[in-house]
Amino acid sequence: MPGTAEAILEVSGLVKHYPLTRGIVFRKQVGAVKAVDGVDFSLAAGETLGIVGESGCGKSTVARLLVHLERPTAGAIRYRGEDISRLSGRALKAVRRDIQMVFQDPYTSLNPRMTVGDIIGEPYEIHPEAAPKGDRRRRVRELLDVVGLNPEYINRYPHQFSGGQRQRIGIARGLALRPRVIVADEPVSALDVSVQAQVVNLLERLQSEFGLAYVFIAHDLSIVRHISDRVGVMYLGRIVETGTDTEIYEHPTHPYTQALLSAVPVPDPGARDRRDRIILSGDVPSPADPPSGCPFRTRCWKAQVRCATEVPRLAVPEEFARRGGPAAHPSACHFAAERRVVPPAGEPPAAG
Ligand code: ADP
Ligand code: MG
């Protein structure tokens, strides 16, 4: 796991709460949606961090915070050592060039009335210093070529392209300013399964060609595994487990990760029968009213009374740390090191 020294991006204590208001004239704050509620991670240059979790757990909010589409309620985002979360003016603009976003839905994120050339070249309008005017068309053609599209398509409109091609256009736009970091928010979720792999392969090729670091967001664990060096699993605005792909996929220690993995289809029927299938009970709680203590406890088969009162820290569980090996990675669970903890009969799990 890369150390702090080589981190290009470092996020600590990141929080985004959206105020919940009542009334139109006297807008009164009656609470908050805790979309992101204390997220920490680091990203090394050239590395891919996958972030996975169910819909609504705060992934897109993290993405928007990283690229400065929104400001955090609390916490720091350090880019090459400097906290960029509260920058403004020219300093902010310079940083924004380096951290670019690829959006989830290539059908809605490209302006249908602009040509592909204007879409890909748009970042040069916002950052004119990045490329001299006379050079921009040439650069856009090169970008089209780099993402595997015919440079002759430069005057076409988005509707003339397939979903996969549109996402390539979105990626070309993301590359226009030669960023160091790309935040890809579910970049293949809206695409046919048959073209998902092509777009993932393109992203991998671009990464090695240009030395990009990726934050790759997905709700699908299998896609993230293929591309990620490390993975963070999110639940209700927090990262509950993080580690290398082998640590997370072969040795998950958080009950939520174990449940997610048990739901991933396995092609081999023998393997399917041999493993435990964990069915989560209940729905994800509202981020406006998250459970006390551990956010996952209301759906967890290991939950005990302690889980309702004490927030588990994202840290290597002591017992695993002593033993070493692939289970020794950060997991935010009080009972990560226990095998199945079944509450005694008649006693409800973690009341409160
Ligand atoms: P994900 O991308 O994992 O599906 P999001 O980051 O989009 O999750 O949303 C996390 C939570 O924050 C959701 O409950 C969502 O409804 C809420 N949310 C997102 N954006 C806003 C906003 N602008 N105002 C209020 N609530 C929001
Ligand atoms: Mg999202």
Task: Please describe what this structure looks like.
Helix content is 31%, strand content 21%. The chain has 12 helices and 10 strands. It has a 6-stranded mixed β-sheet with strand order 6-7-8-3-9-10, sandwiched between helices. Strands 2-1-4-5 form a 4-stranded antiparallel β-sheet. Helix 3 (116-126) crosses helix 4 and helix 4 packs across helix 5. It binds adenosine-5'-diphosphate and magnesium ion (MG).
Provide a compact summary of the structure:
The chain is built from 12 helices and 10 strands.
Q: Helix and strand layout, with pairings?
A:
Layout: E1 7-22, E2 28-44, E3 48-52, H1 59-66, E4 74-79, E5 82-83, H2 89-98, E6 99-102, H3 116-126, H4 136-146, H5 163-175, E7 181-185, H6 193-210, E8 213-218, H7 221-227, E9 230-235, E10 238-244, H8 245-250, H9 255-262, H10 269-274, H11 305-309, H12 318-323
Parallel strand pairs: 3-8, 3-9, 6-7, 7-8
Antiparallel strand pairs: 1-2, 1-4, 4-5, 9-10
Residues 18, 33, 35, 53, 55-61, 287 line the site of adenosine-5'-diphosphate (ADP).
Bound molecules: adenosine-5'-diphosphate, magnesium ion
Main beta sheet: strand number and arrangement?
6 strands, mixed
The strand line-up of the biggest sheet is 6-7-8-3-9-10
The sequence of SSEs as H and E is EEEHEEHEHHHEHEHEEHHHHH
> What is the C-alpha radius of gyration, as a whole number of Å?
22 Å
CATH class division of the largest domain = Alpha Beta
Query: Which consecutive residue ranges, at least 5 long each, have pLDDT under 50?
Result: 1-5, 343-352
**Structural class of the helix and strand makeup?**
alpha/beta
> Beta-strand level of the residues, as a percent range?
15-25%
CATH-wise, what's the superfamily of the largest domain?
A: P-loop containing nucleotide triphosphate hydrolases
